[in-house]
Amino acid sequence: MRFLPTMMLLILTSTAVSGCGWLTGDDGIFRDRSDEYRKARTIPQMKLPEGSNSEAIEDLYAIPVERTDVLLGKEFEVPKPAPLVGDPEQNVVRIQKLGEEQWILLDGAPGEVWPRIRAFLISNHIGIEREDAATGVMETAWLTFKSDSTRREKYRYRVEQGVQRNSTEVYVQEMGYTKLEGEEPRAPDWKTGSMDPERETWMVKELAGYLADTGDDSSVSLLAQGISTVNKVYIVRDAENLPAIDLRLPYERAWASLGRALEHAEFTVRDLDHDAGVYFVKYEPGKTPAPDAGLGANETQEEKRGFFSGLFNWWGDDEEDNPAIGRDYRVEVKKAADGVLIEVRRGDGEQFEDGEAEFLLGLIKAHLA
To answer: Which residue of 32, 275, 332, 341 sits 20 to 30 Å from the alpha carbon of 13, by its own alpha carbon?
Structure first.
């Protein structure tokens, strides 16, 4: 009689093992569905009869477009996370300049910066005549001055998404004139730029100082969340299937931004050719002088080493751990439809080692602004 329970146990065990495939196999009830999203089809947008109100079914918030331009194989493997680069300029307010154009660059989403600009105007008793949070434009009323009763001045603030995520750019324009007796207030023409560059610079510095002093304010404008937050920088694949940076900026701005990024990423610029769009650099961490940290920085924020340095390949501190150290590279900027494409090549013309190009471009991308 002892034989029967043993046989029953073996039969049950065999049934359970074979049943796993029936439950979890490719055709099982509990099959792996993690790749089924790749079979999803795009369906036409819902259409309502003419005259119907469609506001109730519209998207409340725009979903940012995340572009990768990477073709997946049949079996997708989750890639390793990119090493995080410690942000040495977090919560720093910086005034950027390119030619005659200047803007304020600071940490935080546009929806967080918008109410701080509004608070700046209110605290200085400056009237707000027009504000459009959806487009990120705020305009003051005409200002008068005790020292010159005939002087009229107006300012316009434009808030945009920065190059990096969770960063904002603020542009200031000035419009002024001498009012004649009995003259009606003039309509501003913002297309011509600031009429008095010195007054614009004064306002930029005043606003930048205020934003640096109020960096701990955490209020968010729900209305200003409509300001476009679409990324301006992506890692893509070029025509040779090598990684490249797709930067959505005008060429001259992109060239200047890349030069500053190379400095902050601890590349030594040995030579450059603006006409050809090439920086000749050597990766030498620890040898480049620390650049100006900007308003609100302290000593710990000026450290430029990556937070995960040493935990991944290509992130060591010496040539044995990181072969990129001491190597020469060509960083090339090429015009594209929506901005520029930034590519990197070995100075000796040799092929990249595994992960080398990704490391270099990731380092540069993290410092673009």
So the answer is: 32
Buried b (16+ CB within 10 A) or exposed e, 69-81: eeeeeeeeeeeee
Q: What was the pLDDT predicted at 260?
A: 94
The pLDDT assigned to 70 comes to 47
Q: Which amino acid is residue 116, in one-letter code?
A: R
**Reported pTM:** 0.68
Walk across the sheet containing 233-237 and list its strands.
233-237, 243-247, 339-346, 328-336, 278-283, 267-273
Closest CA to 329 of 346, 343, 314, 341: 346
Token pair, residue 229, equals 């937050």
Residue 269's pLDDT is what? 96
Q: What is the pLDDT of residue 14?
A: 47
Per the rule left: phi > 0, alpha: psi between -120 and 50, beta: everything else, 182 is left
Q: Please tell me the predicted confidence (pLDDT) of residue 85.
A: 47
CB of 269 closer than 8 Å to CB of 262:
yes
SS3 annotation, 179-245:
CCCCCCCCCCCHHHCCCCHHHHHHHHHHHHHHHHHCCCCCCCCCHHHHCCCCCCEEEEECCCCCEEE
What's the angle, vertex CA 76, arms to CA 73 and CA 78, rounded to 5?
140
Q: What is the pLDDT of residue 296?
A: 59
Task: Please give the sequence-ordered ranges of beta strands (E in DSSP) within the chain, or none if there are none.
Answer: 94-98, 101-107, 128-132, 137-140, 151-161, 167-178, 233-237, 243-247, 267-273, 278-283, 328-336, 339-346
E strands within 44-87? Answer: none
Q: CA–CA separation, 301 vs 126, rounded Å? A: 34
In 241-293, where does DSSP find H-type helix? 251-264
Alpha carbon distance 258, 252 (integer Å): 10
